[in-house]
Design brief:
Mean pLDDT: 81
Distance between the termini: 65 Å
Number of helices: 5
Strand content: 15-25%
Number of domains: 2
């Protein structure tokens, strides 16, 4: 009996094997993400935040979960860009986490080992909200079309040819 006949006569076995292969692939990706030799899984050590809807921004450690208190005001992450090789910078969009996500994160243990906890990643992914500076309302990341519109940043002249995301420089060691 050939492979085609075996597959058509045993669809449950083929489905099971496929699901196991997908599970192994996902597990491998998870291990690679958690055990990455690059600090913070390849993420920058610092990020930009703002307390004034993106008009100004400051840097702080990248693993802060916004909004958080900064000098008595709520700070949210500012995703900063430049179109002129860094001479001027602007906040393209802002990010924060919902109150529900904050409450769920407080329920998790806060040990360094738990930073790679998949529950944490799930909470962060589901609770992320975005908006452009000046927009009155935050949009959940799960609203795909609106999310895509928010993160489709252009330069002030309407082009994106010279658009570059900017991260704060790493602290001197």
């Amino acid at each position: 009996m050939g492979i085609r006949e075996t597959i058509s006569k045993n669809p449950q076995i083929v489905t099971s094997i496929t699901l196991v292969m997908i599970g192994v692939a996902l597990l491998g990706m998870g291990v690679q993400l958690v055990c990455s030799p690059v600090p913070n899984g390849g993420q920058p050590e610092l990020a930009y935040y703002t307390t004034d809807d993106g008009r100004t921004f400051f840097s702080d450690v990248a693993d802060r979960v916004p909004p958080f208190d900064h000098a008595g005001r709520p700070a949210v992450r500012a995703v900063v860009f430049t179109c002129d090789d860094g001479k001027t910078r602007f906040a393209g969009y802002l990010q924060r986490y919902s109150d529900t996500a904050h409450a769920a994160l407080r329920q998790l243990p806060t040990t360094p080992a738990n930073q790679g906890d998949f529950r944490r990643y799930g909470i962060l992914a589901q609770g992320l909200e975005l908006k452009r500076p000046g927009d009155p309302e935050w949009t959940p990341q799960s609203f795909i079309e609106r999310h895509q519109a928010i993160v489709s940043v252009t330069c002030p002249d309407g082009t994106s040819a010279r658009l570059i995301a900017v991260v704060p420089p790493a602290p001197a060691k």
